[in-house]
Amino acid sequence: AEVINLAFSGRTEYKDNESAEFTVQISDNYTFADKYVLINGKRYEIDENGKVNAKKLEIGDYKAVLYLVSKYNETINSEIPFRIVDTTPPNATIRLENTDIKVGDTVTAIIDAYDNTGIKEITATVDENECTVLGNNTIVIENIGTGKHIIKVTVKDYEGNGCISSYEFIVSDEIGSDFFVENELSTSSSRG
Q1: First to last CA, the chain
Q2: Cβ(143)–Cβ(124) under 8 Å?
Q3: pTM for the complete prediction?
Q4: Which residue from 156, 139, 145, 73 is spatially nearest to 104, judged by alpha carbons?
Q5: Phi and psi of 163, rounded to 5°?
Q6: CA–CA distance from 173 to each of 42, 68, 144, 146, 180 (Å)?
C-alpha cells in the first residue's frame, strides 16, 4: 500500500477585503487523477504551487473541502471551516431638520446611518449629555439655549465596527445675528 502524505491548511477567519487562501501539500511520488477544493459547492482549482485562492467571497460562514481522486477512483478529502468577517465600519451623517433656529425652539437632528451588513446600535450625546435616539433615527432637543451645541453620534454594526460623527451648530440670541451651522465637525471609524 502506498503512503500519501497530505497537508491542507488555511486560516479559519478572513477579512471581507481579502482573499481566502489555502495550501495543499501532497507527496511528490503520487499523481492524482483529479484534485480540487470545493468552497460551499463552488470548485476551485489547485495551482502548480499547491495554492487555492478564493476572491471576493461574501461575509459569512464557509467550508473548504479538499478532494483528491486517485487513478483508481478512490477519493480522499479534508475540510477546513472558515468565515469571512465584516471589517467595514458604518457611515453616519447628521443633519438638522430645520436650520432657522431661535432660542427656545425644539431642534430635530436626523441621523443618516448606513452599513454593509446592518446597523446594530446608534447612541448620541448633545453637549456631552446622553440623549435618546428615536426609532426613526432622530434626536429631539427641546428648548434649545444660546451658544455652541455639539451633537455626537456613535454607530456600530453587528461585528463591532463603529464610527463617530459630530455636528456643531451655534444659536445666537442677538437681534440681527445669523444662525450658523458647521456641518460634520468630524467623522472617525474603528474596526471591531
Answers
A1: 50
A2: no
A3: 0.73
A4: 145
A5: -145, 155
A6: 66, 79, 11, 6, 12
Q: What is the rounded CA–CA span in Å between residue 2 and residue 57?
A: 37
SS3 66: strand
Distance separating alpha carbons of residues 172 and 174, to the nearest angstrom: 6
Q: Which are the contacts of 58, defined by CB distance < 8 A and separation ≥ 6?
A: 84
Residue 120 DSSP SS3? strand
Q: Which residues contact 63 (CB under 8 A, 6 or more apart)?
A: 39, 40, 79, 80, 81, 82
Q: DSSP alpha helices (H): ranges in the chain?
A: none
What mean pLDDT do residues 114-128 have? 95
Place of cell 482549482: 45
Closest CA to 109 of 39, 178, 165, 50: 165
Least confident of 26-30, 33-37, 135-139, 150-154: 26-30
Residue 165, all three cell numbers: 460623527
pLDDT tens across 38-74, in order? 999 999 999 999 999 999 999 999 999 999 998 888 8
